[in-house]
Design a protein that fits this description.
five-stranded antiparallel β-sheet; 42 strands; S-adenosyl-L-methionine-dependent methyltransferases; single chain; about 500 residues; mainly beta
């Protein structure tokens, strides 16, 4: 339903529709600051990067301001890992909870906890294989399993020598549904367990210090293993590496990639390309040869691939990069509060409908991001009078021939707003920390008088429509500017808004 505009007089909606027509008819379709280092709460021998920010109490069940495609599922304490099976998402709620929360994700936007499973240990990671739920604790000295349908847990003991970390990827189910790969970081090894026999069938020991992340690719025929080599006070004293194995049968190492540099924290794979996150940088390597392909300046703490997109969590945001790492496409605010210590995120799990489920053990949030949202807010605005940052959103869906309303809010009451329309997101510095987040193809559209009086009270709704004949998948990017003498540059501006015709 399209809401009635709060102020309709003097709004030249024909100009907005005309601008979108001109644009759409001709086109188809990160936080700054170096980290310091502190010991992790669970293991004083592992040091990790941390940004100097203060935590705030977690909140639940709220939409992120100006981001209609991000929301939080309430009721979790410290979600760290997740596994999707059918319409249920199984989420660890560790740090002493000894339980797994069951989240029903069938209803888009209506995700909710529908049950809990008492566990024999405090799980740090889990996997689903063979219609069974598999768990591992921080000790990583046993696997624990039970049928998804219910029943008692049984255990498979594992050899273990050293105490290990209380977070991180510890358990990986191979696509063949038979093998489970268990990471033991301080043993510098990975155990391969046959789930049908309950036996350790191989020990992969030719790894560098502190293996942390495994990724299967090439249809499960290959595996990449990231060894982070953390050593205080900087990362890389023992050398982080990515080792690539043939795992069609028993694992055999093919080659390794030296990813030297501070704080290598994440590994992912997209279409045969290995993606590595390290301090202030995303790297790409050929998964067949190990050759370096690309690098992108991006301050993220991890890297994941979801719905064919490269995403990297930063301090409170989710960055999306072009698949070839040519540029940062957008960022989305994720969290209710800033992060206090690293690793800030647990696992991310993507569903077939474009939702990304983000576990955050620091913020106490299970966050849902709609990666395929037809109206996608991104980037950051610039404040005006009173320090208030305007927002740009939309009501309705950008369907061909359909109606939608662009909603400018939070501006200076009584001021005038202008709309910038472009083909792609951007991040062009304007000065004083302000950004132009679209690549304009047209002259600014406006002015649009804002209702209200005073800082943050100004708003206007701009009804428009997607022209008939616009190709499906066509995109347009928009940003609102408000003439405001209280702004550092004489104006304030909003977040960006990317529309995708569907």
């Amino acid at each position: 339903m399209i809401t009635a505009p709060r102020r309709r007089d003097d709004v030249p909606r024909a100009l907005v529709a005309a601008a979108l027509l001109l644009l759409l008819s001709g086109r188809s379709g990160a936080a700054d600051g170096a980290p310091r280092f502190v010991p992790t709460p669970g293991d004083r021998s592992i040091w990790v990067p941390v940004h100097d920010v203060e935590p705030i109490p977690p909140r639940g069940a709220t939409k992120v301001a100006a981001t209609p495609n991000v929301w939080h599922v309430p009721g979790l304490v410290a979600p760290g890992a997740a596994a999707l099976a059918g319409t249920n998402l199984y989420v660890t709620n560790h740090l002493g909870a000894n339980l797994v929360s069951v989240v029903d994700v069938q209803a888009f936007g209506g995700e909710s906890i529908v049950g809990t499973i008492a566990t024999p240990v405090d799980p740090i990671d889990l996997a689903v294989a063979g219609a069974e739920l598999w768990l591992i604790s921080a000790a990583r000295d046993a696997l624990h399993r039970r049928p998804l349908a219910g029943g008692a847990f049984s255990s498979i003991p594992l050899p273990s020598t050293f105490p290990t970390v209380t977070y991180g990827d510890g358990l990986h189910a191979h696509p063949d549904g038979v093998r489970l790969f268990v990471v033991q970081p301080f043993d510098d090894r990975v155990l391969v367990v046959d789930r049908t026999s309950g036996q350790v069938v191989q020990t992969i020991a030719d790894l560098h210090h502190v293996p942390q992340r495994l990724v299967f690719f090439a249809g499960g025929a290959r595996m990449a293993a990231l060894s982070v080599g953390l050593d205080a006070p900087s990362c890389g004293a023992t050398g982080p590496h990515v080792a690539v194995y043939d795992v069609a049968g028993a694992a055999q190492r093919l080659f390794e990639i030296d990813v030297h540099g501070e704080c290598v924290t994440g590994l992912a794979e997209l279409a045969g390309t290995l993606l590595v996150a390290r301090s202030h940088e995303l790297l790409a390597f050929d998964g067949t040869t190990g050759a370096a392909l690309a690098a992108l300046d991006a301050n993220v703490v991890d890297v994941f691939v979801a719905a064919g997109k490269v995403v990297g969590p930063a301090a409170g945001d989710l960055l999306q990069a072009a698949p070839d790492l040519a540029h940062v496409e957008k960022t989305k605010p994720l969290l209710a509060g800033a992060l206090a210590w690293s690793p800030p995120f647990g696992e991310m799990v993507a569903s077939a409908d474009g939702r990304l489920f983000v576990c955050n053990r620091n913020d106490g949030a299970l966050t849902v991001v709609d990666l395929e949202a037809p109206a996608d807010a991104y980037g950051a605005g610039c404040p005006g009078t009173g320090g208030v940052v305007p927002t740009l959103g939309c009501v309705g869906s950008p369907a061909v021939g359909g109606a939608l309303s662009l909603d400018v809010a939070g501006g200076l009451g009584g001021a005038s707003a202008w709309l910038f329309v472009g083909a792609d997101p951007a991040a062009a510095p304007l000065g004083e920390g302000c950004l132009l987040v679209v690549e304009p193809l047209l002259a600014p559209i406006g002015p649009f008088p804002l209702g209200g009086a005073g800082p943050g009270s100004g708003s206007v709704v701009l009804p428009t429509a997607v022209p008939v004949g616009t190709p499906l998948g066509t995109r347009a990017s928009l940003q609102a500017f408000v003439l405001d003498p209280g702004g550092a540059l004489g104006f304030s501006n909003s977040n960006g808004l990317e529309l995708r015709v569907e």
